[in-house]
Amino acid sequence: MEAESSSGLLLSRKRRRDGSNGETEEGERLGKIPRCTVGLRHPAPFADELKPSKKPYERVNMETAKKGTPPDRPVRVYADGIFDVFHSGHARALMQAKCLFPNTHLIVGVCSDDLTHKYKGFTVMNEDERYDAIRHCRYVDEVVRNAPWTLSPEFLAKHRIDFVAHDDIPYSSAGSDDVYKHIKDAGMFAPTQRTEGISTSDIITRIVRDYDVYARRNLQRGYTAKELNVSFINEKKYHLQERVDKVKRKVRDVEEKSKEFVQKVETKSIDLIQRWEEKSREFIGNFLQMFGPEGALKHMLKEGKGRMLQAISPRQSPNSSPTREELSPSPTFRLPFFTKTSPPPSPRAHHSGARGYLVSEDDEEDEDEDEN
Q: Is the pLDDT of residue 269 over 70?
């Protein structure tokens, strides 16, 4: 799969340049060489499902591969592995293998379950799941199922492999200190870098460490104890632990809500206290203005007292007013019903006790003279 997977290899683009005479010239320039990948929209095909190429095969050396090969002759890079519990570390390794050269066709070999269990151990995912996971990686162009543990010259020639990509750490297995030693000696090895902090073994370690948590979670999701390989006693224990955890969560929620309530009450109480202090200062100030030593009430009482005294006490005569002797004698006024037979009024009376008529002193003198 060489020419078929590299369609649209040479892109031409017209460009215009302004000449000195103002005319435009059209030229052609090479665009970027597209990577030979079919995994961007469709899963990568399996190698045993492709038609073998009839073109003669000549391996590309490192110098030519780095400079760039023709579009119809991509550099065929091979990377193999178990790829159990496919994670970002696997994807990064395949991305590095894909980006080794400008024009790369990435072939990924995945070992079968029998071979993996024999040399490495039991896997979480079976071989079909691992094959399918690799097919859906965007960097992969071709997948080799049941890949060999050690790469032979016949396998390299069959799949027309130019370089083998793997991390540079010696991989000891199957009685060999480094299964890639003969590849390195042949100059076909292209090193990649491992991603620290993530690996299949690390993920499995996390699952084993938190086994009780995951077992309880799956029991709650409907898995049976038989499916989880959990005994009857452990199943009951997990259910009891789940109930205890629910109670703890409820208590924790109540504590958090009570803390929030207390905080709200404290905030509101502080606001109320501040408002009360402000209002109390205002009230005290108004009280002092009204009832204080120099308050408005004292001035009001003084003013009212002065008005009452002024209303009760008579006004003093002015110094320039005439005395009683200087006043002209009051004119004599005789009532027609007063006769000599009438009883004499009270001596030196100023007011009549019975009728309340005012009689002057001149009238009294005239009455005395008549009697004489």
A: yes
Mean pLDDT score across all residues of the chain = 77
For residue 141, give the nearest of 61, 78, 67 by alpha carbon. Answer: 78
Q: List Cβ neighbours of 191 (8 Å cut-off, separation of 6 or more).
A: 165, 166, 167, 168
Reference 151, options 174, 118, 122; nearest CA is 174
Please name the residue that has the structure tokens 């996390």.
206
CA 361 to centroid of chain Cα atoms: 112
d(CA 111, CA 183): 18
| Residue carrying structure tokens 């032979």 | 152
Count of Cβ atoms closer than 10 Å to residue 372 Cβ: 4
Q: Determine the Cα–Cα distance for residues 211 and 205; give it in Å rounded to an integer.
A: 10
* β-strands 24-30, 12-18 pairing: antiparallel
Segment 271-321, tens digit of pLDDT: 888 888 888 888 888 887 777 777 777 778 777 777 777 778 766 656 665
- Burial of 331-350, coded b for 16+ CB within 10 Å and e otherwise, reads eeeeeeeeeeeeeebeeeee
Residues in CB range of 8: below 8 A, 6 or more apart: 34
Alpha helices in the chain (DSSP H): 62-67, 88-98, 113-119, 127-135, 153-158, 181-185, 200-209, 211-220, 232-291, 296-312, 361-371
CB 47, CB 159: distance < 8 Å:
yes
* SS3 label, residue 76: strand
DSSP string, 11-43: -EEEEEEE-TTS-EEEEEEE-PPPP---TTTSP
- Distance set, CA 38 to CA 41, 45, 106 (Å): 7, 8, 11
What is the per-residue pLDDT for 101? Answer: 95
Distance, CA of 189 to CA of 286 (rounded, Å): 95
As a whole number of angstroms, the distance between CA 213 and CA 21 comes to 79
Residue 129: both structure tokens together: 């799941």
Identify the three-state secondary structure at position 192.
strand
